[in-house]
Specification:
Number of strands: 5
Shape: globular
Oligomer: single chain
Radius of gyration: 14 Å
Strand content: 15-25%
Number of domains: 1
CATH architecture: 3-Layer(aba) Sandwich
CATH superfamily: Sugar-phosphate isomerase, RpiB/LacA/LacB
CATH topology: Ribose 5-phosphate Isomerase B, Chain: A
Bound molecules: D-ribose
Number of helices: 6
Structural class: alpha/beta
Largest sheet: 5 strands, parallel
Length: 146
């Protein structure tokens, strides 16, 4: 198990450049970032990278991950197939915060063709800085996997 300051990130080509910027942002914040790809602008399937990140989180190798594609939709669909993964597609700060407080989201999904760089950084920061409330929400998230 990695420490809480480790995070795995992945994207397809549509959000490759935003992924690279988020990596720099996270490293500057002291995170150890593991990049699951993609590694350039060439067209790839979001499914392959979604599986890498969601699989690693599902298996407990990383507590948290970040996935990006053009809209975030495909990555969300892939990631939420994995047991124990709660992937939250967010484009506003309130949702990013509540995905942690109520849903204990362990993967943040962003749409690189939807949001700008500064909003993306704010979403990442908010998501990482917010804790799970537990209580009645623990029963609810546990029952997702039942
Ligand atoms: C790639 O063109 C695009 O389909 C992908 O990035 C994503 O938006 C899929 O959901």
């Amino acid at each position: 198990m990695e420490t809480d300051k480790s995070i795995i990130i992945g994207s397809d080509h549509a959000a490759y450049e935003l992924k690279e910027k988020i990596k720099v942002f996270l490293i500057e914040k002291g995170y150890a970032v593991v990049d699951a790809g993609t590694t350039g602008n060439a067209s790839v399937s979001y499914v392959d990278y979604g599986k890498k990140v969601a699989g690693a989180v599902s298996q407990g190798q990383y507590v948290k991950g970040i996935l990006l594609c053009g809209t975030g939709l495909g990555m969300s669909m892939v990631a939420n197939r994995f047991p124990g993964v709660r992937a939250a597609l967010c484009s506003d700060i309130f949702s990013a915060r509540m995905s942690r407080v109520h849903n204990d989201a362990n993967i943040l999904v962003l749409g690189g063709r939807i949001i700008g760089d500064i909003l993306a950084f704010e979403l990442v920061q908010t998501w990482l800085d917010t804790g799970f409330e537990g209580g009645r929400h623990l029963d609810r998230i546990q029952s997702i996997d039942d």
